[in-house]
Amino acid sequence: MTPTTTITFLGTADAVPEAGRDVASFVINGTHLVDTGWCGTAQMMRFGLDPLQIKTIILTHCHQDHYLGLPQFFFYWAQRWHSGMGKPSLTIIGPGDLPDVMEATRVFLMVDRYPRYAWKPDIRVIQPGETIQADDFSLAACQTRHPVDGRCYRFTDRRTGATVAFTGDTAYHEPIAEHVRGCDLLIHDATFPHDYPRPDLERDGHSTAVDAARIAQRAAVRRLILLHYQQTRCEESLARAAQVFPNVSFAREGQTVDVQPS
Ligand SMILES: [Zn+2]
Ligand SMILES: [Zn+2]
């Protein structure tokens, strides 16, 4: 069977969840988890994915809404992984404060008292301009515009050739357009309504749907999906964004998107 590149959205909200709506997180090909949400592990099972199949966790940055789900994930693995499955193998990729987050996760799980949670994943800090090569993908990073060190990634699926870029949290930042140029899918921060005051967007390091559309248009990507958003005035924001870049939608929780290479 011809392989396809799939994205499954586990959550779509900004910083805090709402009833029935987790914060922004998604899975690529059922095996690579991007940010962990608040409840990413439970969300995977809800949408028919197996958390034990995750081989890579990619963190866009280390704000809490993007890594809070890490302890739950490790706890689940420690409970469910059994010797017949071999040695657990997991790589975690993220910016410079990733080792601190991993150490905090181990402290939170009290690994000294509960050694079964003590296994260490392979930790890979990625710098802007760097590319990580894995068996089935390559991952190139650039800097975002956010109050903490963040990465926008360009993920290339080696099996299909499809390219998916995702910004994590960022204000409008034109260098991102260069980094994601020509991608088959761009997943971009769209936290605030289209008319949110520009100084506040700069202060908070977030985008509107129209900002995301401007990047998509500038980068000539094929499709734009908006993520990490508040549900205020979405229809109006989407209409405004579509005037700039027509092939745009808001991500929906549980939605799976097939990405075809161009
Ligand atoms: Zn966030
Ligand atoms: Zn953030």
Task: Give a written overview of the molecule.
The chain is of the alpha/beta class. The protein has one domain: Ribonuclease Z/Hydroxyacylglutathione hydrolase-like (Metallo-beta-lactamase, Chain A, 4-Layer Sandwich). The protein has helices spanning 40-46, 64-67, 70-80, 98-108, 174-179, 198-204, 209-219, 234-244, and strands at 5-11, 25-28, 32-34, 56-58, 91-94, 122-125, 131-133, 137-143, 151-157, 163-166, 185-189, 224-227, 248-250, 256-259. A seven-stranded mixed β-sheet has the order 6-5-4-3-2-1-14. Strands 7-8-9-10-11-12-13 form a seven-stranded mixed β-sheet. The longest helix has 11 residues, at 70-80. The chain is globular, with a radius of gyration of 18 Å. The structure holds zinc ion (2 copies). The site of one zinc ion has 7 residues, from helix 2.
CATH A-level architecture: 4-Layer Sandwich
Total strand segments: 14
* Gross morphology: globular
| SS-derived structural category | alpha/beta
At CATH level 3, the topology is Metallo-beta-lactamase, Chain A
Total separate domains: 1
The name of the CATH superfamily reads: Ribonuclease Z/Hydroxyacylglutathione hydrolase-like
CATH class: Alpha Beta
Give the neighbour order of strands across the main sheet: 6-5-4-3-2-1-14
Q: What is the percent of helical residues?
A: 25-40%
List keywords for this structure.
8 helices, Metallo-beta-lactamase, Chain A, alpha/beta, single chain, seven-stranded mixed beta sheet, 14 strands, binds zinc ion
